[in-house]
Automatic annotation (TrEMBL):
Keywords: ATP-binding, Nucleotide-binding
UniProt-recorded name of the protein: HSPA12B
Gene Ontology MF terms: ATP binding; ATP-dependent protein folding chaperone
Keyword Nucleotide-binding: yes
Similarity comment: family membership: Belongs to the heat shock protein 70 family.
Coiled coil: none
Organism: Mytilus coruscus (Sea mussel)
The organism's place on the tree of life at top rank: Eukaryota
Compositionally biased tracts (Polar residues): 48-64, 80-90
Lineage per the UniProt record: Eukaryota, Metazoa, Spiralia, Lophotrochozoa, Mollusca
């Protein structure tokens, strides 16, 4: 038997027939439950059938759709919730715009709860992002490297290769991406970013006594992938020495630095007094396609905190951005690949393999007749980016020097540790898999000294360190890549079993890790029938492609829904249906209502056209005299969720609908959603007053 949960303040009744019920304000359960969130019911309309929503539903239950997640040995405990931390420093003033503002347009009002993002009133068709801004700039906060690219709208419209990237001075020359490193002083105030932060921290170690009280963060992006459902704005991360700070502050400092840098460049490079400012720029922030919704929302929040307003920001999925770039800018592809290249022509399907420092992100794309992209296989992958090779090396250090020694070095001399890993990184990038020569690189003396002090003996002879240089055989060095190669190959093998990818014979490998010879050679070896296309600068393809995405957000025409989306309603049911629901109530007329019901709007696996709105659905408020309804939007990986409280259901946000100006009780609330972009846009039209209410939710 189910438990019948009685709802208290139900001022609205659900209608599920084509009859509009007369509102019954004498509900027996009126006073026994709280919360305005249940004031929402589905209206069954003569004109709008719920069946209209059941579009094609490709089978997504294939095993390869489930992303496996491998916890890295040395990441454990790096990220923890603020609730059990004491060492959180004061955060910067929160620049977040209060989203509770109500914007009045001619006929429309946008209203949202604080958790939601308000968008400007606009026509449905107008989902072209930032179409009125002079510049488009993309910011890519990478696990290892970060940067921005930009273009004047007019220039990039004329020529998609017309995208600029600043150059950053690193330890070995100039780079188009900067290091993802943020330094805060001991008070927690932002100090430096990128290579500059690394160098400063390193050099200050010699002479600045208090440098260990500074906060130095690198390799923090993976937090957003690893924390998944536990992610929130209070979460803290530890710096290189274990000091804690709110993660959102670190992310937003990185975004703010890049944003301010571009503004500075623009102000200096254009005619004086041209007054180019933040509002002239539409910003695009890149995110891995495999990230969960909360992670994407976290990046939005970090961007807002960095002074980028919600309506001047789009999120671009990293593999999509790279895919768009390689297609629109053929000169990004090596000539050798172009000769045999077929993947630029319409009708061709290919897999985009985005291999960055943190994640491996795989998506299937098809080029449509009209040259737009269609997603044929949804994003999937895992934490198998290039940094795993570094983690294998760090494990090796623990093996040879012992965990105790490595921890001691990290704690006492973090720069020495960091430098050694950096030295390794250089060798990793230039490693030639066919060479038999030993790999030799600098290793800090600190390891030797701490070892000898701790063990009261010399280093064992198998550790080949001489004059501060470590020597590793080519075969051992190769072994650092084994785990990555295995993960990538086995994941791709699984994916290629899918019937949806049977026509694919091209892999477009992007992301910095695709520069690795050993990785690309291994993929070629395992998939001899595939053409592996690597652009000339695979790391930059994501960043530059994000600018093109900002210019043309509809370049990807359709996507496969990764979630089932819906809203919370009360639904009238027949007595025999009781058993299907966990929470029920009954009104005075003994009508039965299932409560907290997940009303499905889009189903997982459905193909959704990016600029198309789902057929409208109509609902009635449960009580005619209520001043407002709060419509809660949910997502889940279940195909047929029953209640919004089912395990795995995630609340996306709430759209508040103001009913104060309603003059009569009738007139439905018409709900339309557009879920094919990188965000969901929901519009409620109050047919009584003609007012529209909109909200934008970040898509998982
Ligand atoms: N020639 C190379 N050989 C091997 N690895 C390389 C090479 N060039 C770059 N990498 C690796 O690629 C990764 C960086 O790539 P990229 O800049 O695309 O990543 P990211 O943007 O920092 O990470 P993510 O996109 O996953 O957040 C690093 O792990 C780096 O060591
Ligand atoms: Mg990247």
């Amino acid at each position: 038997m189910f438990t019948c949960k009685i709802l208290p303040d139900l001022k609205y009744l659900l209608t599920i027939a084509s009859i509009i019920y007369v509102h019954d304000t004498s509900d027996t359960n009126l006073n026994s439950m709280g919360g305005a969130l249940r004031k929402w019911r589905k209206r069954k309309s003569k004109h709008v059938s719920t069946n209209q929503l059941s579009l094609s539903t490709p089978n997504l239950s294939e095993p390869q759709q489930k992303v496996k997640y491998r916890q890295k040995h040395n990441r454990k405990d790096r990220f923890s919730s603020a609730s059990n931390q004491h060492n959180v420093t004061a955060s910067e003033p929160d620049l977040r715009i209060d989203n509770q503002q109500i914007e009045k347009g001619d006929e429309e009002i946008s209203a949202n709860s604080r958790t939601d993002v308000v968008i400007n009133p606009s026509n449905h068709e107008n989902i072209k992002a930032g179409s009125n801004r002079l510049f488009i700039a993309a910011i890519d906060i990478g696990t290892t490297y970060s940067g921005y690219a930009y273009s004047a709208r007019r220039d990039v419209e004329k020529d998609p290769s017309n995208i600029l990237c600043p150059q950053w001075r690193g330890d070995e020359g100039l780079y188009y991406k900067n290091a993802t490193a943020v330094l805060f002083d001991k008070q927690g105030h932002f100090s430096k970013f990128g290579f500059e932060a690394e160098t400063y921290y390193h050099e200050a170690m010699e002479e600045q006594d208090d440098i260990l009280t500074y906060f130095f963060f690198n390799d923090f992006k993976m937090l957003l992938y690893e924390k998944k459902d536990d992610l929130n704005k209070e979460i803290v991360i530890t710096d290189i020495t274990g000091k804690k700070m709110k993660a959102i502050k670190v992310f937003s400092a990185a975004i703010r630095y890049l944003k301010e840098h571009l503004l500075d460049v623009l102000q200096k490079s254009f005619v004086r007094d041209s007054n180019i400012s933040n509002t002239d720029i539409h910003w695009v922030l890149t995110v891995p396609a495999i990230w969960e919704m909360k992670a994407k929302q976290f990046m939005r929040d970090a961007a807002e905190m960095a002074g980028i307003l919600a309506d001047q920001l789009s999120l671009a999925l990293e593999p999509e951005a790279a895919s768009i770039y390689c297609r629109k800018v053929p000169m990004s592809i090596k000539e050798s690949d172009l000769k045999t290249l077929t993947f630029l022509s319409s009708g061709i399907s290919y897999v985009v393999l985005d291999q960055g420092g943190g994640t491996l992100d795989v998506t299937g794309h098809q080029i449509e007749e009209d040259n737009f992209l269609k997603e044929i296989f949804p994003p999937n992958g895992g934490s198998w980016g290039g940094n795993n090779v570094n983690y294998e090396f760090e494990k090796y250090l623990e093996e040879i020097f012992t965990i105790q020694v490595v921890h001691q070095v990290k704690q006492d001399d973090p720069v020495a540790y960091f430098d050694t890993v950096k030295q390794f990184e250089r060798k990793k990038k230039s490693f030639k898999p066919k060479s038999d020569a030993d790999v030799v690189f600098n290793v800090s003396q600190a390891f030797k000294e701490v070892y000898e002090k701790t063990h009261k003996s010399d280093l064992p002879s198998e550790i080949r360190i001489k004059h501060g240089k470590m020597r590793i055989s080519a075969s051992r060095f190769k072994a650092f890549f084994d785990q990555s190669i295995q993960s990538i190959i086995s994941h791709l093998s699984e994916i290629f079993k899918s019937p949806k990818l049977q026509n694919v014979n091209v892999i477009l490998a992007v992301g910095g890790f695709s520069e690795s010879e050993i990785i690309i050679d291994s993929i070629r070896e395992h998939f001899p029938n595939m053409q592996i296309v690597v652009p000339k600068d695979p790391g930059l393809a994501v960043l530059k492609g994000a600018v093109l995405f900002g210019l043309e957000p509809l370049a990807v025409k359709s996507r496969i829904s990764r979630y089932t989306y819906g809203i919370k309603i009360d639904k009238e049911i027949l007595p025999k249906e009781d058993e299907n629901y966990r929470t029920l109530r009954r009104d005075r007329k003994s009508r039965r209502f299932a409560t907290d019901v997940f009303e499905k709007l889009v189903e997982i696996g459905e193909e959704i056209k990016v600029n198309e709105w789902q057929p409208a659905k109509e609902y009635d408020p449960i009580y005619k005299d209520d001043q407002e309804v709060k419509i809660e939007f949910y997502a889940t990986e279940e195909k047929d969720p029953v209640h919004v409280t089912d395990p795995g259901c995630m609340k996306l946000g709430t759209l508040n609908v103001d009913l104060k100006e309603r003059t009569r009780s009738n007139g439905a609330l018409k709900l339309e959603i557009n879920a094919g972009g990188t965000e969901i846009i929901a519009v409620i039209t109050d047919e009584n007053t003609g007012k529209k209410f909109k909200a934008k939710f970040c898509l998982p």
